[in-house]
Design goal:
heterodimer; A: mainly alpha; 10 helices; B: 594 residues; alpha+beta; 3 domains; 15-stranded mixed beta sheet; 4-stranded antiparallel beta sheet
């Protein structure tokens, strides 16, 4: 295959196509990144980074085959990179006024420190493990759905979930004992 | 499941719960901000330190448009100035300044003082402050709102007030043998003795009659308006009730009393002007999403505000693009607030009087999914660039008056909604200067221009928090500055703060904080930096919602706010009462679904 020329959306049609892809998928990337990072600004940076890369590259085969899974994985990876970069710096969990996050309901108070500990623990996971646990608990997907999205068997997902839970439990041991 | 597994499951569920329920509008806003950055080469380079350009060539025009617009505006402004100077030759006085509180200026730029004569053709401008009152030689009084400009000239059979911008209330003396005219760029009002309001805005003009009658001429069309009636020359103009429109006047209470006497039976709300009747969606689909119950989570601040026993009515989300609007889980209450320009959360908390009265309980509890097709080319929203911190701006799509008109038509057609407007007396505040004078720091070139920059600067200078606040955090000022720089300290907002902000900006913040209308009577103009630390101001940006609007005089929160305003900013917030318009539901039906 000959080298591909710099892939710029030089036509209006390409620009429109890019915006269409962006409008369709950016919310998923944003929510995923925010869920991992707990910071709106960082999540926006992740969205920007991913779509900028997409804009600069031609849409790779993986992307065209399953764009949603591709972008989800890209969002998790980019977010983990951000998390790892700031591991020694505790996450600033923005206050509730600025985020407009729905307040915890009466069933429990989930405090900012617990969030911070959890993000730090997730930062220590592998990309596959982090993606699996996020799909399970953030997206509330079933094992079957996760297997379909990741292109692996249900058994692989189940084993990966089991191991990741065990690892996270270890990392969160102290904090979880205070959480009821 | 083992106990340990249960705990883990609980932790994970709790951890991600807030992100599962992120309001769609918020995601939408974030994505628009990023898209804007992606379109913006400068932002892209700044964030990613990449040097080559890959943006679509067409997008480069985004930079050109504002430059071209500015250049055009500068030329037009210069031409207008020349014309104004040319016309302001010496002519006989037609009026004198009766009241000017420092915010009024004559053509030469010198302040207008009480008793000054106003010659024909000589413009009078009001900037900040409380406006001005002119007394015409025929005995008529013209009250100018702030940010207005007019000039006077002789007409064939009387005097003509040429209103270039802003608003005036004219109390026209009985004309013996002529007329008093008010002319804007697109409408002429002629009277023989009455009280009326004229607003001249970019979009068009609006005339409202408080007492008597006027004749309004627009092109070849002529219309007679009676007390309580109003007309706008453009459907794009907001149409607040007459009582609201005159609230800025120093005689607002008397004028509203006059209005009520003149209109013994308050007219039912008209779907504004015939031209606005054309503002309709092409196709509307309505489905019932479900019913909320008292104390249910709304996903928004109204939840906390509503508390147990109250049905949250403002939980819906909206998607807007050029051809389609999608209301997700909107209650009728929320639709009405949207259609009439209100803030749903704020309305829910306001009482004495409540902004919306009447109607069955389902107007709050029944949540509807509504999809509507916008007529091609209607563009019923405005794109506004908002400051998102870090020196960046992002586009925000604000539903405009045309979309509001379309929703009003939808409410009338499908919900059979009939609303009336009635005037109630309610609490208001006047913002005045305290005895020791204002203590505002003027903004100057080189100062930060965004709140975030200002917070960083204050933190660096270790003056961000008061001693009490630092004590509450358990750190010294230096420790706070260091930890803030590293973003390793949690800091719950800056309190009431303005950067490069005018008194009008402060008024908006105070209205949000107190839930009451605030009238600026300070006559202070210019741009300032100010901050009322949280210890002085118990209200954050949305705190009043959470506090159920407990901002009435006499409450500790209110007393803290007023004391802080006076001590820190040298301003006073004086409670009083004034006219407030409320919407009253006269009739409504559940819509048939389709």
């Amino acid at each position: 295959m000959s080298p591909v020329a710099a892939p710029q959306p030089t036509s209006v049609r390409e620009a429109q196509e890019f915006e269409q892809i962006y409008r369709e998928h950016a919310p998923l990337v944003y929510r995923t990144a925010w869920g991992v990072l707990g910071s709106r600004e960082d999540a926006e940076d992740v969205v920007q980074a991913i779509f900028l890369k997409l804009l600069r590259s031609d849409y790779r085969p993986n992307f065209q085959q399953n764009s949603k899974a591709y972008l989800y994985r890209a969002a998790v990876n980019a977010s983990l990179d951000v998390l790892k970069a700031r591991r020694r710096r505790p996450v600033l969990v923005e206050n509730i006024e600025r985020l407009d996050v729905p307040a915890p309901d009466s069933t429990g108070n989930f405090d900012d420190d617990m969030h911070r500990r959890l993000f730090e623990a997730i930062a220590q996971l592998s990309a596959e493990a982090a993606e699996t646990v996020l799909l399970r608990y953030m997206e509330s997907k079933s094992v079957t759905e996760i297997a379909a999205q990741q292109g692996v068997s249900r058994t692989v997902v189940a084993v990966r979930l089991f191991r990741t839970r065990a690892r996270l439990r270890t990392l969160l041991r102290g904090a979880m004992e205070n959480e009821r | 499941m083992t106990r340990q597994n249960q705990r883990f499951h609980h932790v994970m569920t709790q951890a991600f719960a807030p992100f599962r329920d992120v309001p769609d509008e918020q995601i939408d806003m974030a994505c628009r901000r990023v898209l804007n950055d992606l379109h913006d080469d400068a932002g892209r380079v700044a964030v990613f330190e990449e040097t080559d350009r890959t943006s679509p060539p067409a997008l480069a025009w985004r930079w050109m448009r504002p430059v071209a617009a500015l250049a055009t505006a500068a030329v037009v402004f210069a031409v207008l100035q020349l014309r104004v100077v040319h016309e302001s030759v010496s002519r006989p006085a037609l009026a004198r300044v009766e009241v000017a509180d420092g915010g009024a200026y004559r053509n030469s730029g010198e302040p207008a003082r009480n008793g000054d004569s106003i010659a024909a053709g000589s413009p009078v401008r009001t900037n900040g402050g409380t406006g001005a009152v002119l007394a015409l030689t025929d005995g008529s009084r013209v009250e100018m709102r702030s940010q207005s400009e007019l000039s006077l000239e002789r007409a064939d059979d009387g005097v003509r007030i040429r209103l270039n911008r802003g608003g005036i209330i004219v109390n026209a003396a009985k004309q013996r043998d002529g007329h008093l005219y008010v002319q804007t760029k697109d409408v002429t009002v002629s009277v023989v003795g009455t009280v009326f309001l004229v607003n001249a805005e970019d979009a068009g003009s609006r005339v409202a009659v408080i007492e008597g009658e006027v004749r309004v001429t627009q092109g070849a069309a002529q219309k007679k308006l009676l007390a309580g009636e109003q007309v706008a020359t453009s459907p794009a103009m907001a149409a607040p009730p007459v009582g609201d429109a005159i609230a800025w006047s120093r005689n607002a209470v008397a004028l509203v009393a006059l209005l009520q006497q003149s209109t013994l039976v308050p007219p039912p709300m008209q779907e504004p002007a015939t031209t606005e009747r054309r503002e309709r969606f092409e196709v509307v689909s309505i489905r019932l999403r479900g019913e909320t119950t008292a104390g249910a989570r709304s996903g928004g601040p109204a939840d906390a505000a509503g508390g147990p026993g109250r049905v949250p009515a403002c939980a819906g989300g909206m998607d807007l693009d050029p051809r389609r609007v999608n209301f997700r889980g909107y209650s009728l209450y929320q639709l009405i607030t949207m259609a009439y320009g209100g803030d749903c959360y704020r309305w829910e908390l306001m009482s004495d009087p409540a902004p919306l009265e009447g109607g069955p309980p389902w107007i709050r509890s029944a949540l509807w999914d509504i999809q509507a097709l916008i007529p091609e080319g209607a563009l019923p929203y405005t794109e506004r660039f908002v400051d998102i911190g870090g020196g960046k701006t992002a586009p925000s799509h604000i539903p405009g008056p045309r979309l509001q008109m379309m929703v009003r038509a939808l409410l009338a057609d499908r919900f059979r909604l009939v609303l009336g407007r009635e005037t109630r007396e309610g609490p208001m505040f006047s913002l005045t200067v305290a005895a020791g004078g204002p203590r505002l720091t003027p903004w100057k070139d080189g100062d930060p221009v965004t709140e975030r920059e200002m917070i960083d600067l204050l933190a660096r200078n270790q003056t961000l928090l008061s001693e009490q606040e630092l004590s509450a955090l358990g750190v010294t000022a230096a420790q706070f500055a260091e930890r803030w720089a590293k973003r390793t300290i949690e800091f719950r907002g800056p309190g009431l703060m303005g950067v490069k902000a005018s008194i009008a900006d402060l008024v908006v913040q105070l209205e949000r904080a107190t839930l009451w209308p605030v009238v600026d009577r300070t006559a202070i103009k210019g741009e300032f930096n100010y901050r009322l630390p949280r210890s002085e101001n118990p209200f954050g940006p949305i705190q009043p919602r959470l506090m159920g609007g407990a901002s009435a005089p006499g409450t500790p929160a209110f007393d803290a706010l007023t004391a802080g305003l006076e001590r820190v900013l040298g301003l006073r917030l004086e409670p009083g009462r004034g006219p407030r318009d409320v919407l009253v539901i006269k009739a409504v039906e559940r819509p048939s679904e389709n």
